[in-house]
Amino acid sequence: MRAPTEAFTYRYTHYGDADVLKRHQYPMPAPGPGEVLVEVISTAINHMDAFLRNGKEDTWHDDPWPRSSGSDFAGIVRRCGPGVTALRVGANVVGHTRTGAHASHIVVPADQLVAKHVAIEWEVAGGLFLAGATALETLDDLRIGPSDTVVISAAAGGVGSIEAQVAKYRGARVIGTCGERNFDYLRQLGITPVRYGEGMAERIRRAAGAPVTAYIDNFGKDGREVAAALGVPPQCYRSSADRRQVELRLLRDDAESVSHATQVLQRVVDLAGAGAFRLLVSGLYPIEDIVDAFEDLAKLHARGKIVLATRPVTRARTLRAREVFERMP
């Protein structure tokens, strides 16, 4: 089979909703010194991708137009540039980039890639970077370990579910706050679920049976007040604003930040390969349906991650359990 001569990427020329993303076809790029051409097999979508696209996140507001989208990807090395010795053509890899992963192919420096563990499915591999690295950075910052009882809000989401599982893997007792429809999912992970809403602090207190030592708030509403009511020390509370800062640090493209992000990604892949956590992919979309995928993400009902596939086995849509739930009166 002949190698393709063209690639495509999704990019946008102005801020807006997902429908500003347009497919752009262009000649297949060649990697330069120290770079690698990767054929993208799977690539996740993140809330940060949407915030950058719609202008709610303006950290890189002076980037030139048009702009590309996506930071997480997994794929196959198709060409290596001069000086690349640690990777070979045909290697399966997981990578990160500040932007540009929502594409058929991507050229990145070789030091932004790690080997894909054989036990990790492609759709999972493409969703590991930003959620997994953010989860590890947060747990490391709080030094979560066997002596902790930690509360994690939005524990069924992409970041929250990894935080919960890795915290449990480290020996901590984990309580996850969520809607009732996610109770069974969290119980399957060995996480104690607690319902959102009025009286949540008392429900957490009863479920914990011991002092809560840390609180990670991915939900971003009343977490600080609940943590204070539980007696969590301020230095052991992490807000959704803190999470935003972690994600932005991981996306920086200076050499030191890139190196650190790759090191954290390696740890994420190692943990996933060892079975320390399982990332649930609740929506797998053909990359051509990127607008639908972002609209799904915006509903805030997805468990785990939503991932785009460049080579889906089928393009047929099946009704998901959560879609049935959403349509119930």
Write the layout of secondary structure elements.
Elements (H helix, E strand, L loop, with lengths): L5 E7 L9 E6 L7 E11 L1 H8 L12 E2 L3 E9 L11 E5 L8 E5 L3 E3 L6 H4 L3 H14 L6 E5 L4 H12 L3 E6 L4 H6 L3 E4 L4 H9 L5 E3 L6 H7 L7 E2 L1 H12 L3 H19 L7 E6 L3 H9 L6 E5 L11 H7 L2
Parallel strand pairs: 9-10, 9-12, 10-11, 12-13, 14-15
Antiparallel strand pairs: 1-2, 1-4, 3-5, 3-7, 3-15, 5-6, 6-8
Helix pairs in contact: 3-4, 3-8, 3-9
Give a description of the structure.
The protein is an alpha/beta fold and 329 residues long. The protein has two domains: 6-127 and 280-309, Medium-chain alcohol dehydrogenases, catalytic domain (Quinone Oxidoreductase, Chain A, domain 1), CATH 3.90.180.10; 131-245, 3-Layer(aba) Sandwich (Rossmann fold). Helices cover 33% and strands 24% of the residues. The chain has eleven helices and 15 strands. It has helices at 47-54, 122-125, 129-142, 158-169, 183-188, 200-208, 223-229, 240-251, 255-273, 290-298, 321-327, and strands at 6-12, 22-27, 35-45, 67-68, 72-80, 92-96, 105-109, 113-115, 149-153, 173-178, 192-195, 214-216, 237-238, 281-286, 305-309. Strands 3, 5, 6, 7, 8, 14 and 15 form a seven-stranded mixed beta sheet that branches. The protein has a five-stranded parallel beta sheet with strand order 11-10-9-12-13, with helices on both faces. Strands 2-1-4 form a three-stranded antiparallel beta sheet, with no helix packed on it. Helix 4 links the parallel strand 9 and strand 10. Helix 3 packs across helix 8 (240-251). The longest helix has 19 residues, at 255-273. The radius of gyration is 20 Å and the shape is globular. The model has no long low-confidence stretch (mean pLDDT 94).
